[in-house]
C-alpha cells in the first residue's frame, strides 16, 4: 500500500469543527447514464467501464466532495449472486477501492470504504446473521487493505443490521473510524418515525454511537424536506457527530420516503426510474446546506439523485469554493439577464418583452 502523506483525517476535521462533505449517489448516476440496471442495481460499471467511475470520483471532488467514496455499494455477495457474478466479487471491490484511493491521493481528499444493507437481514433467511456478518467482514477487510481512511455503512432500514455493521467495523476495521447511517422508511410508533424494527431514530443513533460508531445519522430514502425534521430532533439529544445525506428529491409529509413519491400531475408512483419530475434544484440544496450548518450537523452529503451541480451548490452553501466554482453561474454576462458593460445592447424593449417571464435578474 502506498503510504504517502495523507490529508487531515475525518475525526480531526470533525473535532476542529469542520464540515465534511461526502458526495454519493453513484448507483443512480450510472443508471441514468446507461451503465447500470435499475432493479438489481449492481455496480458492474466498475468492471466494465472503470474509466467512467474514476472520472465520476474526480467530478465529485471537483464539485466539492471532501471524500471519495469507493463505489462498492451493492457490490456485495448477495447482489453479485443475484446477477450470477459472485466470481467477480473480490475483483469489483478491489478495483473500486484502488481507483478511489488513487483519486483521493491525487486530490488530497479522504477515501472511504462502503458497506450497506445486505437485503438478507430477515428471519426467513436461514443463518442470516452469519451471512450478513460475512458480507460485512469481507468488504471491510478489502477496504482496510486498500487503505481506506474510514468506512461508511449505510442505508440500513433495520436498527439490528446497522448495529451489526458498527460491530463489524469495530472488529475488522479496528481504529479506522466508521460513519453508520440509516435509511428512514415509513415506520411510525406513537407518531414518531422509527426504524423498520421499531426503534426511534434518535435512540437508534445513540445506541449506534454507544456501540462505537463515530458518526451516526440518516442517508438515502428521504429528501431534505423530510429528513431535516428527524435530524432537528436528533441534534437536541445526540452527542455523537451527526450525518445527513438526503436523496435529491422533493419528498413530502404525506410521502416522506422517495419510494412512495407520487407524480404531482398524475398521482402515479415514481420510484425508482421516474423521479426526475420531483428532483431538488440547486436552491433546495443551498437551503439544505444552510440549515444543516445552523443545526451544527457536520457530516453532510447528497445521495440518490445527486450530480455535480448539486454537490457544488452544497459546497458553496457552506462557504466553499471548489474547483467547479470557477464555472458557477455568472448571470451578469447573460445576454438577457445581465448588465455587464461588454454585453451588446439588447435594447430595453426586447428585455421587457422577455423579462416578465423571468423570476430573478442578477445585478
Ligand atoms: Zn440513496
Automatic annotation (TrEMBL):
<dbReference type="GO" id="GO:0008168">
    <property type="term" value="F:methyltransferase activity"/>
</dbReference>
<feature type="binding site">
    <location>
        <position position="303"/>
    </location>
    <ligand>
        <name>Zn(2+)</name>
    </ligand>
</feature>
<feature type="region of interest" description="Disordered">
    <location>
        <begin position="340"/>
        <end position="363"/>
    </location>
</feature>
<dbReference type="GO" id="GO:0008270">
    <property type="term" value="F:zinc ion binding"/>
</dbReference>
<dbReference type="Pfam" id="PF02574">
    <property type="entry name" value="S-methyl_trans"/>
</dbReference>
<feature type="domain" description="Hcy-binding">
    <location>
        <begin position="8"/>
        <end position="318"/>
    </location>
</feature>
<keyword id="KW-0489">Methyltransferase</keyword>
<dbReference type="GO" id="GO:0009086">
    <property type="term" value="P:methionine biosynthetic process"/>
</dbReference>
<keyword id="KW-0479">Metal-binding</keyword>
<dbReference type="InterPro" id="IPR036589">
    <property type="entry name" value="HCY_dom_sf"/>
</dbReference>
<feature type="binding site">
    <location>
        <position position="220"/>
    </location>
    <ligand>
        <name>Zn(2+)</name>
    </ligand>
</feature>
<keyword id="KW-0862">Zinc</keyword>
<comment type="pathway">
    <text>Amino-acid biosynthesis; L-methionine biosynthesis via de novo pathway.</text>
</comment>
<dbReference type="InterPro" id="IPR017226">
    <property type="entry name" value="BHMT-like"/>
</dbReference>
<protein>
    <recommendedName>
        <fullName>Hcy-binding domain-containing protein</fullName>
    </recommendedName>
</protein>
<keyword id="KW-0808">Transferase</keyword>
<feature type="binding site">
    <location>
        <position position="304"/>
    </location>
    <ligand>
        <name>Zn(2+)</name>
    </ligand>
</feature>
<dbReference type="GO" id="GO:0032259">
    <property type="term" value="P:methylation"/>
</dbReference>
<dbReference type="InterPro" id="IPR003726">
    <property type="entry name" value="HCY_dom"/>
</dbReference>
